[in-house]
Design goal:
Elements lengths: L8 E6 L2 E6 L2 E5 L7 E5 L2 E5 L7 H4 L4 E3 L11 H7 L5 E3 L1 H4 L6 E3 L5 E4 L2 E8 L7 H4 L2 E7 L6 E3 L6 H10 L5 E5 L16 H10 L4 E5 L11 H10 L8
Helix pairs in contact: 5-6, 6-7
């Protein structure tokens, strides 16, 4: 018998940014609210092609930000950085916690903390092919759990199905997966920085076929696949019913 009280509430703002409400706690993932334009990262720039669907003010109360990493503007932009200083707490990598001026707590993979009734567990993420971590920097995902509630997995910028398999082994009952897709590519590395559409389908299979919300597949020029590519991949696999 399913004893969950109610499913999580989800609001996808655009790109990687999504509001997840679970057990009355409102989490904002990877805040990006800047307008379209070019945003520098090192000697390169990333180009944002579409504005967010809504502003941070439209979202209302935010209890905590789940920041997968701080080093790339498509996951944390100028407006997002300003927002970090206004929320009660930010959970992110230990490296980012040392760089940000905000109420930040750094988490190593598989460490956990409490936000109200919700346990937030940091989980691994690999932002590119094997051997490129020194170029892309550290990233984490998150698993959210609470008594009587759905278990939510937020992948962060992850390109490794091995990482997804590890999460599936250690968190055997994921009800909702927020999967970062887009098959992102830049000249920085030879390969994809996030999951391709077929890999998102395989990730869903590895996780036991939970409901899936696909993010990080729109609004940036370095995303080589969009939401329609993911929908088509799920349709070809007969799993389109999983998509939220």
């Amino acid at each position: 018998m399913d004893t969950r009280t109610q499913p999580p509430t989800l609001i996808h703002v655009g790109g990687p940014t999504v509001l997840v409400e679970l057990a009355g706690v409102r989490f904002l993932v990877d805040p990006t609210f800047d307008p379209p334009g070019d945003y520098p990262v090192g000697s390169r720039s990333l180009t944002k092609t579409r504005p967010p669907r809504m502003s941070a003010e439209d979202l209302g109360r935010i209890d905590a930000v789940l920041l997968s990493h701080d080093q790339h503007p498509d996951n944390l932009d100028t407006s997002g950085r300003a927002l970090l200083t206004t929320v009660p707490q930010v959970l992110t990598t230990t490296v980012a916690a040392g760089r940000l001026e905000a109420p930040v707590r750094g988490l190593e993979p598989w460490s956990a903390t409490e936000v109200g009734p919700v346990t937030v567990t940091a989980v691994p993420a690999q932002h590119g092919p094997d051997g490129t971590e020194h170029l892309t920097g550290p990233v984490i995902g998150f698993v959210l759990t609470a008594p009587g509630e759905s278990t939510v997995y937020v992948s962060g910028d992850n390109a490794s199905l091995d990482v997804v398999a590890e999460v599936a082994r250690r968190v055997p009952a994921v009800d909702l997966a927020v999967l970062f897709a887009g098959a992102a590519r830049t000249p920085l590395v030879d390969g994809f920085l996030t999951l391709t559409a077929p890999q998102v389908v395989e990730a869903a299979r590895l996780l036991g076929e939970p409901e899936v919300l696909v993010v990080h597949a729109d609004s940036w020029a370095h995303f080589t696949q969009g939401e329609e590519d993911v929908r088509a991949a799920f349709a070809r696999s007969g799993l389109e019913h999983l998509l939220v």
